[in-house]
Amino acid sequence: MLGTLIVQGIGKNSVMAIKVRSLIAIKKSPFQEIIVADVEEFGKALILDGYLQSTVADEFIYHESLVHPAMILHPNPKRVLIIGGGEGATLREVLKHNMVEEAVMVDIDKDVIELSKEYLPEMHQGSFFNKRSKVVIDDGKNFVEKEIKRGAQYDVVIMDLTDPYSSEIAKELYTKQFLEKISMILVEDGVFATQAGSRFFYREVYEDVANAAKNVFKYVAEYQVWIPSFGYSCNFIIGSKNFDTKILLNHENVDKVLRLRGVETRFINGKRIAAMLSMGIY
Ligand code: SAM
């Protein structure tokens, strides 16, 4: 591995090769091969089944873009569910909103969480140990079924899973059937967000996810942002039962909400959210 290349699948016929400086950890869990490596250009990186998930150099772009538009769209997100998000960075961003009382993070693979706790403190920044955090090891599908049975309700649900086309373990959570179940554990004015990989390289798969969201939620917004270490623009989808996503186009109001909630970011602000939503997807 040393001095060799991590070949990151991008499209069916295209890859991005990144030179490895050092291998930090490698483990085959019951669900996936987990690698933590230090790579040229991007620093420490989490790689699952050969797909780069996040790097210290640019993960903030991805995690802030995934979390804050949905959190801002909801006027008072107290209970938030994160499905996936193994490295703890999505949890970190959710906890920045000072009204959040409980952030539940459900990941299928405890080994991803344990390796991230030990080797990727720059990503979780202690979020796993925050008193408002509740980390559950379970398949997101099973967890949501159980939450429906016990009548649990969330203000915001965020899916930060492996891509809809890269791993078998996440595929079923990107379907209309599962998003309908998510809608059942969302409060009346609930908001949903998910990453959906690359529309450019996997157009059909992406459109299936976007159509699933449009079939379940009254308001849906699609946006994307370039993630240097991914080698492509990552697509995101927000779904809301009650709040028109156009609210997010008012950048002064968005900045005011971020300020009032005490949310400090490196990338996201009102103008960038408005720009991403206005630019749409291509
Ligand atoms: N940031 C990454 C990206 O850019 O796409 C994705 C975040 S994270 C590393 C993906 C997480 O999804 C992993 O920790 C994996 O274990 C988790 N995961 C995959 N399928 C899952 C499922 N069915 N239920 C819960 N977690 C799942």
From TrEMBL:
SUPFAM superfamilies (UniProt xref): S-adenosyl-L-methionine-dependent methyltransferases
Annotated residues for binding of S-methyl-5'-thioadenosine: Q32, D107, D139, G140
InterPro entries registered for this protein in UniProt: PABS, PABS_CS, SAM-dependent_MTases_sf, Spermi_synthase, Spermidine_synt_N, Spermidine_synt_N_sf
Catalytic activity: S-adenosyl 3-(methylsulfanyl)propylamine + spermidine = thermospermine + S-methyl-5'-thioadenosine + H(+); S-adenosyl 3-(methylsulfanyl)propylamine + putrescine = S-methyl-5'-thioadenosine + spermidine + H(+)
EC number: 2.5.1.16
GO process terms (BP): spermidine biosynthetic process
Coiled coil among keywords: no
Any single Pfam family the record assigns to this protein: Spermine_synth
Residues where spermidine binds: H63, E87
Subunit structure: Homodimer or homotetramer.
Protein family (similarity comment): Belongs to the spermidine/spermine synthase family.
Name under which the protein is recorded: Polyamine aminopropyltransferase
Species name: Ignisphaera cupida
The encoding gene: speE
